[in-house]
Amino acid sequence: MSDTSQPRLALTDLSKTYDGSTPVLDGISLTVGAGEFFSIVGPSGAGKTTLLRCLTGLMRPTDGQVTLDGIPLSEPSPKMSLVFQEYTRSLMPWASIGKNVALPLRARGVPRAERTSRVAKVLAEVGLSGVEAKYPWQLSGGMQQRVAIARALVTEPEVLVMDEPFASVDAQTRMDLEDLTRRLQQDHRMTIVLVTHDIDEAVYLSDQIAVLSKNPARLVEVVDVPLGAERDQIHTREMSTFADLRGRILRTIRDVQTQPV
Amino acid sequence: MSEATSTLLWRPTGGVKLRQVGLAAAGFVVWLGLWQWMTTTGPMADTDGLPTASRTLSSTLELAGSSQLWSSLGTTLWLVAIALAFAVVAGIAAGVAMGFSPVVSALLDPISQVLRPIPAVVWLPLLLMVLGPAPELGIAMGFLGGVWAVLVQAQVGVRDIDPVILETSRAMCLPRRLTLSTIVLPSAVPYFATGIRISAAFILMLVIGAGILGGAPGLGQLILVAQQTGDPARVFGLVLWSGLLGLTFNSILTAGEALLRQHRGGR
Questions:
Q1: Residue contact A103–B175, C-beta within 8 A
Q2: Where in this chain does the record put each ABC transmembrane type-1 domain (chain B) (predicted)?
Q3: Which of A81, A86, A135 comes nearest B164 by C-beta?
């Protein structure tokens, strides 16, 4: 981030206004360095999902632009993968896990044999070896989200964007998935952009956190998270730096929420 | 949900089943008894063209041994199958195209809105003039009556796709062709199944109707001939056979629909 190299993802003066209403996003600029774990937090209804849709190319911003490796993004890029909160809705219930995970490879014209081996490899990486023939509804929620993560990883993306990916699973599963995500990011030196409403989660996972305000969403601050590369669900969360950052971000969000509009 | 339905259909419990069969049989006995009484000593005795229950039953049973009945049933089912095949292919193709592409929808939807409400029987005089009392008459009538249910269901099915999975496919950079074959079509399968079931019932009705009203071959034609030769017991017997055919046909379709829905995977 602090070096002079080009950022992986850059948002410049991004604004979004839906037809005939007040702006949702207002002049958001931020940069995400390669290999960084970057989270976006903000009060409920701040337009985090709108921001995510704009930065993945699923939606055109009204103003400003998004660049991926310096190239302006106007539609979803094959270098980017997306994981949604609703795994039950983003997986195809009529297709086996193997077919679900292989789909992005089919879109890229990868031959069948290579698809099979890459699917097996990525499923092993998320701890789900040998489930190819099963169907999504035969797996638990946490396992289904692992499948969705595997599908996002199978194309070896440079950037993984996650929209509240752990909001629909139980607490224990959530911790497992957080650690899995962090480990995958380290192993693949991948850039991750995580949108979450959970400040603890953001602090635990991230290298940097962008805090948004609400009505419209503006960038309030970008917080560095100096917790090191290795994170641990118990030790990291006990560190005073963790508590300080958590308190600081929560306070900021409470302040922007209570401000008169 | 579909699993529960098929369990109900195929695995009835013994005791309840026996009682129900007994009650159903009692209902039939009362019905036939009343009928027999009405047409022999009761108020409708000696009404012209109204056969007694016993004559109708014996005629119905007699028909079971008639090769004419079976070949007519076969013809009717064959015409239904052809009409259904056309209706399914055309209905799904047009419905999916209309659901998937706003341009195609703007082009075809007005036509569909105009043609759909026309009761299919209304086409009969025109078709009879063009085709004559041929098998094609039955097929054409069946098609015109059956295509709309498939088309509308296909359209709704495609429009009803979960936006999350569509976003997912966009984010995966799937080409349109692959989105269509791997996401849109499988996701709409339950709608196709419902459309086909509704459509097939219409088609059966219209193929038989085309026989009765227009002389197209099959069960309908057999009824028409029995009527023209003044044999009401035979007409009535054929009516009962049509009912039996419809019942069998519908159970098969309902089971088929449940199977298709199940195959798609339950959530």
A1: no
A2: 73-257
A3: A86
